[in-house]
C-alpha cells in the first residue's frame, strides 16, 4: 500500500453576496513520515463571523492532530469547547478531521458535518462508526471512523452547503441531500473512473451550485476529495544539456520516460526532435492566446512549448491559483502538472545567451531558478512528489 499516492484537493464557493467564505479547509502532509491531515470546518452562518469561527476551529483541530495527542481526546476537547447558539440551538462550528497514515489507514471524526462518502469501485461503501457524546448535555454527537483504504478509493467530504443546495426550490424542496450526491457520484465516476480529486471536488461544488435558484449559492459550499491511486508521473524537461556530448542521453531520458512528457523551449524541442528522429511543428491554432507563443506538436510528447515566457507564466498560475478562461501553453502546462502526482524536472544547464541581456524584463528569470521555484510550489502547496535533475 505504500506505493499509493494520496491526492487531496478541495473546491469552494462562498455564499452569494459574501466576500469571505464561512467554511475553512486546511491540509498538511508530514514530510518525515508521510502522514496526511485535513480539516474541514463550517462556521455558523456566513461571512466574516462564520469564517473566523471556522478558521479558529480548523486551526485548533490541525494543531491537536499534528501534535499526536490522543485522537478521540482532542476531538472531544474541540467539540466541548465550542458553545451552542442559544437562539438557534446549533453549534457555532462543525468539523470533519481526516488522519491518513502512509499505509492508507484512515481515522476520521465528524461533528455536525454531513457524513462523508466512501466510493469504491464506483459505488458507495458504508463505513462502521462509533458515536461519542459531548459533556454539555446537548444534542451533539461525534462520529469516529477507522478503516483501511484501498487502491482507487475516494473519500468525499463536504459542508452542508452541498447537501442543502437547492433547499426549498421546486425540484429540491429538501435540498440535494447526501443521497442525491451519492447517486450523482456513482453515475459520474462510472463514466469517468479516473477523475482526479481536484477535478471531482470542483465537479461536486459546480453540481451543488447548479441546484440553487439562479445558480447563486445560498450558503458556503465546500467539498474535499481524498483519492488513493497509483502515482501519475510527469517529466518536464527544459534547456539543452551543458555538453553537446550528452544530447543523445538527454533525448533518450525524455523518450523513455514512463509517464507524460512536457518539453519546454525551442532549442530543447529541436534537440529532442533531432535525436529521436521526429518532426516538430507549430500549432497555429494556439497562436497569441493569452499573449504566449503557440504550442508545438511532436510524436510521443504530450506538450511542447516555448521556454522562459511559458515557464514564468506557469509559475505565476501555480503560485496564485489563477485559472484563466482561455487556454494557452502555460494553462495546459499547469493542468498537466496539477493532474500529476510525481513530477520529475529535467533541467539542462547550457547557458542561453539570449536570456542574459540586462535590458530584458526582471520577470524573465533564468531557467534554473524558474524550475527550482516550480519544484518548490508543487511540493509545498500542492503536495506533489518532486525531484530535480540537472544535466
TrEMBL record:
Pfam families: SpoIIE. One of its GO terms (molecular function) is phosphatase activity. Keywords: Hydrolase. It comes from the Bacteria. Residues 5-228 form the PPM-type phosphatase domain. PANTHER family: STAGE II SPORULATION PROTEIN E, STAGE II SPORULATION PROTEIN E-RELATED. This is Serine/threonine protein phosphatase.
Amino acid at each position: 500500500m505504500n506505493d499509493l499516492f494520496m491526492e487531496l484537493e478541495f473546491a469552494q464557493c462562498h455564499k452569494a453576496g459574501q466576500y469571505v467564505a464561512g467554511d475553512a479547509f486546511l491540509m498538511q502532509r508530514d514530510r518525515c513520515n508521510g502522514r496526511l491531515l485535513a480539516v474541514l470546518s463550517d462556521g455558523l452562518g456566513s461571512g466574516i463571523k462564520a469564517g473566523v469561527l471556522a478558521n479558529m476551529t480548523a486551526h485548533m483541530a490541525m494543531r491537536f492532530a499534528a501534535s499526536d495527542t490522543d485522537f478521540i481526546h482532542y476531538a472531544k476537547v474541540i467539540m466541548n469547547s465550542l458553545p451552542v447558539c442559544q437562539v438557534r440551538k446549533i453549534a457555532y462550528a462543525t468539523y470533519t478531521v481526516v488522519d491518513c497514515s502512509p499505509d492508507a489507514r484512515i481515522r476520521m471524526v465528524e461533528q455536525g458535518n454531513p457524513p462523508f462518502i466512501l466510493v469504491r469501485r464506483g459505488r458507495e461503501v458504508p463505513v462502521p462508526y462509533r458515536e461519542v457524546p459531548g459533556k454539555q448535555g446537548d444534542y451533539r454527537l461525534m462520529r469516529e471512523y477507522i478503516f483501511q483504504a484501498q487502491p482507487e478509493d475516494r473519500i468525499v467530504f463536504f459542508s452542508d452547503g452541498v447537501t442543502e443546495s437547492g433547499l426549498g426550490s421546486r425540484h429540491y424542496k429538501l435540498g440535494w441531500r447526501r443521497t442525491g450526491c451519492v447517486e450523482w457520484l456513482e453515475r459520474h465516476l462510472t463514466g469517468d473512473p479516473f477523475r482526479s480529486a481536484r477535478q471531482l471536488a470542483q465537479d461536486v461544488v459546480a453540481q451543488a451550485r447548479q441546484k440553487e435558484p439562479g445558480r447563486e449559492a445560498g450558503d458556503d459550499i465546500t467539498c474535499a476529495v481524498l483519492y488513493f491511486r497509483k502515482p501519475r508521473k510527469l517529466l518536464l524537461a527544459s534547456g539543452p544539456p551543458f555538453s553537446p556530448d550528452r544530447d543523445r542521453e538527454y533525448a533518450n531520458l525524455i523518450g523513455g520516460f514512463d509517464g507524460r512528457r512536457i518539453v519546454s523551449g525551442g532549442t530543447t524541442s529541436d534537440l529532442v526532435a533531432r535525436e529521436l528522429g521526429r518532426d516538430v511543428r507549430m500549432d497555429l491554432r494556439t497562436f497569441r492566446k493569452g499573449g504566449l507563443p503557440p504550442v508545438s506538436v511532436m510524436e510521443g510528447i504530450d506538450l511542447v512549448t516555448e521556454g522562459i515566457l511559458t515557464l514564468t507564466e506557469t509559475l505565476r498560475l501555480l503560485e496564485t491559483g489563477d485559472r484563466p478562461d482561455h487556454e494557452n501553453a502555460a494553462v495546459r502546462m499547469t493542468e498537466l502538472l496539477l493532474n500529476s502526482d510525481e513530477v520529475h524536472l529535467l533541467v539542462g544547464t547550457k547557458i542561453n545567451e539570449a536570456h542574459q541581456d540586462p535590458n530584458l524584463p526582471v520577470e524573465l528569470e533564468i531557467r534554473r531558478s524558474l524550475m527550482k521555484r516550480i519544484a518548490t510550489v508543487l511540493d509545498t502547496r500542492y503536495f506533489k512528489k518532486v525531484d530535480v535533475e540537472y544535466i
